[in-house]
Amino acid sequence: MTITAVDASALFDYHALGDHTADITFLDSRGTTASLTYRQLAERARRAAGALLARGLRRGDRVLLPLGTGPDHLAALWGCLLAGLVPCTIVVPPSPGDDSATGTRQFRAVVTVTEPAAVITADSATAAALATEGGPQFLTVADLRHPPATDEQLTPPHPDDAHHIQLTSGSTSAPKAAVLTYAQVTANVRAIHQALELDAARDRSCHWLPLHHDMGFILTLSTLIRGVPLDLMPSISFLRDPLSWLRHISQRGATITTAPPFGYRTATERFRRTPDTGLDLSTLRQAYVGAEPIPLQVLTDFRDTFAGQNLGEDVVIPCYGMAETVLAATMSLDRRPPGSLSWGRVKALRLDREDLHHHDKVTDATGDRPSITVIACGRPLGGLTVHIRTPDGAPCGDDEIGEIHLHGDSVMAGYLSPGGAPTLVPDRTHATGDLGFTRDGDLYIVGRVKELLIVNGRNLPPYDVEETIETHPDIDAGNSAVFSCTDDNGEHVVAVIETRLRAEEHPRIKREAAMAVRQAFGFNLHEVIVLRRGGIPRTTSGKRQRGRLRDDYLTGRLA
Predict the structure, then answer these.
(1) Contact 183, 208 (CB under 8 A)
(2) ∠ CA(295), CA(192), CA(491), 5° rounding?
(3) Percent of the residues in the chain that have a pLDDT greater than 90, as a whole number
(4) How far apart are CA 393 and CA 417, in angstroms?
């Protein structure tokens, strides 16, 4: 069955990777840790493809890659693509020997959903800790050192062949796995190339996003296909020293980068505490921001803070996308007239908060009424169209809030279902679950239909966070609820806990619940609220009403 009409001759040719003359450099917070040329990567990838095929893997088999950023990861990834295998890059479980650890449980859930034929790990100890009887075969990066695959073994793909699997949820119980075909990846990456105007003679890409993140993976893929020099650093290096990201851009003359809003916020905050006057960001021509709600203040602070380091006014580019469209759906590429709510390629609207949150109305803020600022995410990229629809499917006009539907050639084949085949997306249209509206051609995001949390660019179901909170000995199962809310500073996660403990014990339980979430998921709760038993509203069947809790919180009724 043809999913997307693309001529096979138009697909990307991964056999040509070695024809490029650029280098790929791997960095930590201090400097270079490794480097290789495109030719060297191509040779290693062909050897990896030979090893995988020699192990009995066949075209279309899925392969999990729980590997950190580095040469071994890229070689394994491109080896899979050359061999016609379907890679799925995932988080490395930090404690693979601990079956109760969040990362290990998530790994097991991914194996259940994706049903891989093989898993490639960094070393034999990790492989031994994760392997299960009757499960996929486990290989290490050392096993990929093998005579290279021959041209006869590496047959060209069909447009509807699966290119890769991208996980779209951080759930430890039922992660969603989007199937992206060669045709869909080709359509979206070509649109990205056009937007970025990538030029191997001019550009250098530098970012710290992990390869299991769709933004990190597709920017890396887009860069390599065009033969552009590439600098990669692990996200842990950025977190240890956020300014190292900008120092590498400055010292290496990078022109393209990307990050979620928290990356720009963290770098700004660190610079304000410990300025580095030696930074020169004059070469940076495009810095994309997306993957979570975008606060105007974060972008304005970044612009103002680094203007003295020669950051261009039109460098920052808000965008909107998701794994279900490969990556990019809309980008704010237009230059905006300067004003209090617009500059460079950034444009925002200040809306009446009450009308937006409680009446689903788009009303420009006036007077002293509470307001909220929303960012323009731009216009659709080539091959995609945006439709805003009411719950009954009727189209919305400008300034009418509805669910965002994306239609076009880069919309995924579907999510993996039991048995390994994707559940096909009807009419090439994906209902995103995001709420938004359009004005003057720009898309604005204002919320979500579903209760998903988006934290530091990661999608997390609230029940995973609640489950972690409820491991506390003083919190019974089902006695917590988590929701997110957005203001001008971004998205915040709030936890509500029911307990029979006395009031003097509440500060302790707040601290300990917050610490459990921080250790398991790596983010801080904005607030922890403790209520007496029965304080969390529920449906007649006992389900937690997170939406009602959010409304009560926003209106000050939660007490």
Answers:
(1) no
(2) 20
(3) 66
(4) 25
- Phi, psi dihedrals of residue 375, rounded to the nearest 5°: -95, 140
> Taking Cα atoms as reference points, which of 121, 113, 125 lies closest to residue 62?
113
Encoded tokens for 515 = 């610490």
The 3-state secondary structure of 353-377, one letter per residue:
HHHHHHHCECCECCCCCCEEEEEEC
The 8-class DSSP code of residue 8 comes to G
The pair of three-digit structure tokens given for residue 534, joined into one six-digit string: 């029965």
At residue 9, the 3 state secondary structure works out as helix
> In the structure encoding, which two tokens stand for residue 102, read together?
């969040």
| Paired strand residues for 319 | 331
Residue 472 has pLDDT above 70, yes or no: yes
Mean pLDDT, rounded, for 171-191: 87
- Distance CA(114)–CA(3), nearest Å, equals 20
Question: Average of pLDDT values for 252-266?
Answer: 94
**Spatial separation of the C-alpha atoms in residues 120 and 146, rounded to whole Å:** 15
Beta strands in 131-268 (DSSP E): 137-140, 162-167, 177-181, 205-207, 230-232, 256-259
Would you state the structure tokens that stand for residue 426, as one six-digit string?
A: 């009807």
Label residue 201 exposed, middle or buried (CB < 10 Å: 0-12, 13-18, 19+). Answer: exposed
Distance CA 134, CA 117 (A): 11
| Residues 377, 378, 379: CA angle, nearest 5 degrees | 135
pLDDT, mean over the chain: 90
CA separation for the pair 404, 325 (Å, rounded): 13
CA 259 – CA 284 distance, rounded (Å): 14
**CA separation for the pair 481, 134 (Å, rounded):** 37
Q: Which amino acid is at 493?
A: V
Q: If 0-12 CB within 10 Å is exposed, 13-18 middle and 19+ buried, where does residue 498 land?
A: middle
Burial track 393-425 (b if 16+ CB lie within 10 A, e otherwise) = eeebeebbbbbbbbbbbbbbbbbbeeeeebeeb
Q: Is 273 exposed, middle or buried, given 0-12, 13-18 or 19+ CB atoms closer than 10 A?
A: exposed
pLDDT band at 541 (very low <50, low <70, confident <90, very high): low
What is the rounded average pLDDT of the residues 403-420?
90
Cα 396 → chain centroid: 28
Q: What are φ and ψ of residue 185, in 5° steps?
A: -65, -45
Of 466, 465, 493, nearest to 478 by C-alpha is 466
Could you tell me which residues come within 8 angstroms of residue 208 by beta carbon, excluding any fewer than 6 positions away? 232, 233, 234, 235, 237, 238, 245, 259, 263
Q: Which helix (H) or strand (E) holds 485?
A: strand 480-487
Residue 482 has pLDDT above 50, yes or no: yes
Question: How far apart, in whole angstroms, are the C-alpha atoms of residue 408 and residue 387?
Answer: 11
Kindly give, in sequence order, each residue whose CB lies less than 8 Å from that of residue 105, ignoring residues fewer than 6 positions away.
99, 172
| Cα distance between the two ends of the chain | 56
Q: If DSSP codes are grouped into helix, strand and coil, which group holds residue 432? A: strand
- Apex 30 CA angle, 26 and 31, nearest 5: 40
Q: Say yes or no to pLDDT of 377 above 60.
A: yes
